[in-house]
């Protein structure tokens, strides 16, 4: 499992259950992408390729308990990671899955 059992003092948010779509899993495998590394980045505030407004929204979301979104670019494709407002689940997906 890519879920860490114990959060470190540097984790910005709890992830809840971590799930991934089959498209995201297939894409990651085909492109040798380590999803655990992306989840780690997401959890520690490296939200990938976001504009400043989206980065600011994530900062607010952490404080106010709202949804947190990351986007990581791989060539012409992206992997998204979304942690729900209640921190019950974090989903790894491709934009086509949304």
Account of the 3D structure:
This protein has helices spanning 22-30, 35-43, 52-64; strands at 17-20, 68-74, 77-83, 89-93. It has 98 residues and is an alpha+beta fold. 20% of the residues are buried. It starts with 16 loop residues before the first strand and ends in a 5-residue tail after the last strand. The chain contains 3 helices and 4 strands.
Concise structural overview:
With 98 residues, the protein is an alpha+beta fold. It has helices at residues 22-30, 35-43, 52-64, and strands at 17-20, 68-74, 77-83, 89-93. The two termini are 23 Å apart.
Provide the fold topology.
Elements: E1 17-20, H1 22-30, H2 35-43, H3 52-64, E2 68-74, E3 77-83, E4 89-93
Tally of separate helices: 3
- Low-pLDDT runs of 5+ residues are 1-9
Order of helices and strands: EHHHEEE
Structural class: alpha+beta
Our estimate of the beta-strand percent is 15-25%
């Amino acid at each position: 499992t890519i879920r860490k059992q114990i959060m470190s003092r540097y984790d910005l948010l709890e992830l809840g259950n971590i799930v991934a779509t089959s498209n995201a899993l297939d894409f990651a495998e085909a492109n040798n992408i380590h999803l655990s590394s992306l989840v780690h980045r997401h959890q520690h505030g490296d939200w990938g390729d976001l504009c400043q407004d989206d980065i600011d929204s994530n900062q607010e979301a952490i404080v106010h308990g709202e949804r947190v979104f990351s986007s990581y670019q791989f060539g012409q494709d992206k992997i998204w990671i979304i942690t729900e407002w209640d921190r019950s689940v974090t989903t790894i997906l491709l934009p086509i899955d949304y």
